[in-house]
Every structure is written in C-alpha cells, then in structure tokens.
Amino acid sequence: MTRRPRPTVRDVSPTLATALLAAVVMSMAGLVWLHQSSALTACGRRIANLQSQRSELLERRSEALLAYARASAPDELEARARDLGFGPPSSITPLPMAEDPAMALDYPAFAIGGGPLGIVAGEELRDAARDAGILSRWTAGAAPALSAASADSGAEAQPDS
After folding, report:
1. Looking at the structure, do residues 122 and 148 belong to the same domain, yes or no?
2. Would residue 23 count as lying in a domain?
C-alpha cells in the first residue's frame, strides 16, 4: 500500500485559495453587518419606547399640575374647608382665665383684648398683674383694646397709669 501524501497549501491552486479567502471575508463582513443592523434596530426600539414613556410622563405631569392648580385655588380651598366644618365664627366668646395671680406672670397676653383671641381675666388677676408691673408692659398703647375686652366681659375698664 502506497500512501498518498497529504495536500499542502502549496498544492492548492491559487484561484481556489483566493475564492475560499474571499468567501470567508464576505461571510465575516455579512456577520458584522447583520450584528450592526440588529443592534441599530434594537436601539431604535429603545428610543421609541423611551419617547413614548416620556410623552406619557409629560401628560401625567401636566394633569398633576392642573389638579394642583385646581386644588390650590382659593375658592376650592374655602369650599373644602367649609366641607370639613371650618368657617368664620358666628360669634366671638372671650375665654375666662383662672383667678390665680401666678397665671398672670406666665401668660401676660391676657391683658391684650379686642381681637378674636382676646382673653378676659377677672379683677383679681388684673390687679395682680398690675401690681407685678406686667399690665403696663403688655398694654402699652393697647388701652382701647383692653377697655373693649373689659366691656365685652362685663368688667369695668381700668387703663394702666
């Protein structure tokens, strides 16, 4: 048995080698082109999805801004407050304070009256505050308010001298 020698690169014809090399190069180029085109298509899909998400979010944002503007309108706030039971007071009732002179030292604002939060104290508390010098500090220039608060409570107004 005779052995045939194996063919080597030199034994292959140059035309066949060139054709084989051209086919490999063309296959590789085709694979690269296919990869690039599929990557481009995927990127295009992602861009389209992101644009649709963006338009949805912009629409939701504009709806939220519109709802906020409606909810923060003064008329709407007033209507919601009325629904919750809030509203202007029908009458203002002065709150009585304890007849403890120590309270006059802790809460000197009792002497300022006339407003919706005016607090009217009894004569003993007023006298204790005057003796402590608190009444003159807190009612400087507020004698009309003090006398109005005293008139509302039924007590006589005694402006600080």
Report:
1. yes
2. yes
Q: Give me the numbers of helices (H) and strands (E) for the chain, helices first please.
A: 6, 2
Its pTM surpasses 0.90: no
* Separation CA 75–CA 44 (nearest Å): 48
Q: What is the pLDDT of residues 46-93, one digit of tens each?
A: 999 999 999 999 999 999 999 999 989 999 888 888 899 888 777 777
Domain span at residue 41? 14-80
Task: Point out the residues of the chain with pLDDT beneath 50.
Answer: 104-119, 137-138, 140-148, 154-157, 159-161
Sign of CA dihedral 55, 61, 65, 67: positive
The three-state DSSP-derived secondary structure of 60-96 is HHHHHHHHHHHHCCHHHHHHHHHHCCCCCCCCCCCEE
Tell me the C-alpha distance between 159 and 149, whole Å.
Answer: 12
